[in-house]
Amino acid sequence: MIGKMINGYKIVEHLGSGAFGNTYKVEKQGNQYALKLLKPEAINPEISSGGFKRFQREIRSLQKVNSNYVVKYIDDGVWIDNNIEHFYLIMEYVIGKDLDKFLKTEQKKFISDENLMRDIFAQIMNGLGDMHKIEIIHRDLKPANIFITNSQEIKLLDFGLVKMLDYSSITTKGKLVGTPFYMSPEIIQGKRPDYFLLVGKMFMYC
Q1: Entry pTM
Q2: Which of 40, 59, 155, 187 would bridge with 71, disulfide CB 3.0–4.6 Å?
């Protein structure tokens, strides 16, 4: 994929893989972005049956979030490869690592620095608060979906994508949305909180 052009965006580096797609560093007109290329099989049938317009409507709702603690969406579209539609999202490119890797590699620093610990948690709560104000729920909050930049700023990732993606392969009986290890009893009961044992489970790294 390196060097391939996707609707004007040149892929320069593979950043990671997930349950529903791959993320790449891309360049366009001298600017750098992160491109998430969704797997065709991951798209919710309700979205794919409605085509690109429905996909765009979902993206528009995500773009309403204006927060320093949430990664910004830049662009979206469909890339045709071998007659197969691939939906993609363009996001701001930030340098750092996800909180899962940070907690594993910076464990001693995290434990010993109470101010750092408080700051990270405060930024996560601020990001969730900004989303909840406009009635967008993350529903898959976990360290792997929380990015910490080299300057220790928090960016929430992959919020709201649950509406577009089919999580049946990673949830119980295809009915629950999220990552089971981080799901609250309320979600299992059909409610929609974002807060639960994230803090407690993050401390399991300590």
Answers
A1: 0.73
A2: 155
